[in-house]
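TA notes. Do not distribute before section.
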Amino acid sequence: MSALPRSAGPALEPVREAIRRDAEERAREVVDAATRQAEDIRGRAREEADGIRSRSDADGRDAARTEAALRSARLRRRAGGIVLSQEEDLREQLRSEVLAEMAQLRTDPRYPRLLDALRAQARTLLGRQAQLEEAPEGGIIGRLGSRSVNLSLPALADAALERHAGEVRTLWQD
């Protein structure tokens, strides 16, 4: 797949703006949910750590230090695994929501203009002789010989999410 040239920016601005607005709204929802989930996970981890500390003190100083260190490491690993799993779930949820929003673009009255812009972009990337077809899920796929360009709505959504992966990652980090 070929990267889009900088000159494609203006033609894709309506798509970017729609994705940006939807992503920001979804991101706020995801951030709120992630914050609540992270606070809950931290609270449970603190409670369990407090319980471990209390039991360890009763077993003696040396045994308590060893046991607390082992349990703390396990808790950190388990909490880390839970957080990573939640982050992955949130990433996938955001991707699903972005893809759903992109699919709704097909019913937008401006969609034919978007298709025209994507066709022009495919021809710019591949050449005038490129064979273009509308992707089943929306957007355009272009081919010329062994070269191809995927400007389908899901491919554009994935590319946008990839470009903003760092921003998305910060949504659930302290």
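Switch to the second chain here.
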Amino acid sequence: MNKPVIYTLSLLLTAFTALPGKAADSTPPNSVSETVADSSAYTVEKLHEGFKNPWGMAWLPDGRMLVTERSGEILVFKNNKFTGEKLAGVPKVFNKGQGGLLDIKLHPNYAKNQWIYISYSKPVEGGATTAIMRFKLKGNQIVEAKDIFAAKPYIPADFHFGSRIVFDKDNFLYFSSGERGTQPKVQELNNDHGKIHRIYDDGRVPQDNPFVGQKDANPTIWTYGHRNPQGMVYDAATNRIWAVEHGPKGGDELNLIEKGKNYGWPKTSHGINYNGTILTENKELPGIEKSVRIWVPSIAPCGMTIVTSNKYPDWKGNLLVGALAHKHIARVQLDGTKYVAEEKLAQDIGRVRCVAQGPDGYVYAVTEGPGLLIRLMPKNDTAKAAK
């Protein structure tokens, strides 16, 4: 009864060719595809079903896994099975539209300091905002909880909260904040929205942040000009941070995140407004970073990990990106910082909200519609892992 359900999926390798083009071209770089059948096969194990809107995953050293639900719950799993338990003391969240309880991440030194971090839509006067909280656990009870960041200004909109959290090798904390519909102000450095921020693990501001000491600039900002980044990962092997963000209608982006850089929104975009009108004529501008990968049509990227495990020798160093709209996991192959090719995994599995590599080295994902916890298994490991 508790054995995982296993689906064998043929993997389709989609090779994308980068086309040279001018800024005015209607076709974005890396958007033309050629589909070639791949003879290899992997399996997808369905470990749990019944989520409503899962968002983030984190594994504790004692073997428990925590999964956030956007409604404001943190579910406790053990051995990939829901224990029926939930954490107590979760903060009240703004559970409207795209808001709610979002990402979760353990401190890299969790074994010593016990800190856990969440991002959430915090209810505030006049609406909601993206906030970062840290806390410890006493059993299943949240203790010592404290907000260490809350984005300003407060906005009444119920969408584009961003949310992803990563730590780098020096334990600096990075997190994304969506633009909350404030398009003209995303380029302003006194506005926290549409940014990726960098802080110490207790919320203090590092003095080597790019805009520290600059007049009318918020010191936590690391990069700006983002629309709604909902996937981010730190690559320890290269000391790089990658992020994916939602474009408007078309123009989803994979970006290499670098100190102080401007990623263009809303001055540049490869997408259009949802009503079909032109958002901007500019696909590139001087002083604005070019995306490493652009998806047209949109896949709605959400959640991202990098494969470091020996379980997947052919995938090592690749990015895995959840695709909400196209309901698959995109395996993105890179050559350094250049896009090479892409493969669709777990096609039609559901709206993939989060992808993560677990402590056992296997790749896990949570989906909505249906609400699943899945694990990607190399073909030769399936029988062994299912026991």
